[in-house]
Amino acid sequence: SENVKLREFAMSKKIALAMAIGALSLSAYATETASPVESTKDLKDLKVISSQMKEYFGGDIANYVAETEIPNVYLVTLNDGTNMIYFKDTKFAVVGDMYDLKAKKNMTRSLLSGYNAEILNTFKDKGIHFPATKTDKGVETLYVFTDPTCGYCRKLHNEKDQYNAAGINLVYLPYSRSGEGSFSYNELVDVYCSGDRKAALDLAKSDKGEEIKKMPTYKIEDSCKNEVKEAQEAGQRLGVSGTPALFTADGHFFPGYIEASKLRGYIEE
Question: Pairing with 131, which of 29, 73, 156, 235 sits 20 to 30 Å away (CA)?
Answer without folding.
Answer: 235
